[in-house]
Write a structure and sequence with these properties.
- By secondary structure, this protein is α/β, with parallel strands linked by helices.
- It folds into two domains: 7-142, 3-Layer(aba) Sandwich (Rossmann fold), CATH 3.40.50.1980; 149-293, Rossmann fold (3-Layer(aba) Sandwich).
- It is 33% helix and 20% strand.
- It has helices spanning 30-38, 80-84, 106-113, 129-142, 149-166, 194-201, 222-227, 251-259, 273-293; strands at residues 7-10, 16-19, 26-29, 45-48, 71-74, 90-95, 118-122, 173-179, 184-188, 205-206, 217-221, 232-236, 261-265.
- A hairpin with a 5-residue loop joins strand 1 (7-10) and strand 2 (16-19).
């Protein structure tokens, strides 16, 4: 009889997770689960964060088959027993500060770790997008799976297309935001988001909100957002953000809609080559359409 090989993985909190054999039953935070899916790993359960509700946010799910993978709950309403009932060999989450398991209450995370290995991948401001992507790839590799080589070539092509679209004499101005409602909007500070920093590295002209409070966002009125006159708006597509149809009564939102191309933006997108290829390709095509029409 073949002897099983012990498994271990050092996560981004500096903790070593160990198991007697390679885990196969994985419960994951939805962003992590969508990333693992792109590497050929099907989670046995998903959970959300304190921003999520009783059902999975489709904007965060990537290509996950939500009808087939159980969603176990979110935030403070999520009890450790609910996660353990899925009989996981491993729990995979993200961390923004390299300390806390995002999406789980600290007490819940502690209780879980008494029963099952928990690993996190850092996705916060201190990490570059490629670095986050490679950390997830390393985790998937330790679990025996990975993206096919063709996906790397597709990402290279998408990055080239983005640089070409950004390199002309006309550079579309891009603003990333999350609509809070008719009165306020959260403008993303590009330096705080790995995916937005990656866009800037490829030459995209990202609009920077005025300095002030807020590490990740600058919260302002819609008049301030409209005054930035973006050509492209990356609009938060998660369910906790206000929908465009909820903003049609707002004069300054209508001005933004009239003057800019709107693209859905997921600040918690899967961290895989496949997902990043889609993001870069969509933005590059939109930028090219704008510059060719200028």
């Amino acid at each position: 009889m073949e002897q099983s090989t012990p498994w271990e993985f050092s996560d981004d909190r500096g903790r070593l997770a160990v198991a007697g054999e390679r885990p196969v039953r994985i419960v994951a935070y939805i962003q992590a689960g969508a990333t693992l899916w792109d590497h050929g790993i099907r989670p046995v359960g998903l959970f959300g964060s304190q921003h999520d509700g009783a059902t999975a946010d489709p904007a965060k799910s990537g290509e996950l088959p939500l009808a087939e993978v159980p969603y176990l709950g979110a935030g403070g309403a999520l009890h450790p027993d609910t996660l353990l009932e899925a009989e996981p060999d491993l729990v995979v989450a993200v961390t923004y500060d390299c300390e806390q398991v995002y999406g789980l209450e600290p007490k819940t995370a502690l209780e879980l770790e008494a029963h099952v290995p928990v690993v996190t991948v850092a996705v916060g401001p201190g990490r570059g997008l490629a670095e986050v992507r490679e950390r997830f790839a390393a985790l998937a590799g330790s679990l025996g799976r990975g993206e096919p080589p063709s996906v790397a070539r597709q990402l290279d092509a998408a990055e080239d297309a983005l640089r070409q679209a950004s390199g002309g004499p006309v550079r579309p101005r891009v603003l990333a935001l999350s609509a809070a409602g008719p009165e306020r909007v959260h403008l993303a500070r590009p330096g705080s988001w790995p995916d937005l920093r990656a866009l800037a590295e490829h030459g995209v002209d990202l609009l920077e909100p005025a300095s002030g409070p807020g590490v990740n966002w600058s919260t302002v009125g819609w008049a301030d957002a409209a005054a930035m006159a973006p050509d492209i708006v990356l609009s938060d597509a998660r369910v906790n953000a206000a929908r465009p149809e909820e903003l049609r009564s707002v004069e300054h939102w209508r001005a933004i809609e009239a003057g800019a191309r709107l693209l859905p933006w997921n600040p918690e997108a899967p961290c895989s080559r496949r997902a990043h290829t889609r993001f870069y390709t969509t933005l590059a095509e939109t930028m090219r359409e704008i510059t060719e029409g200028a």
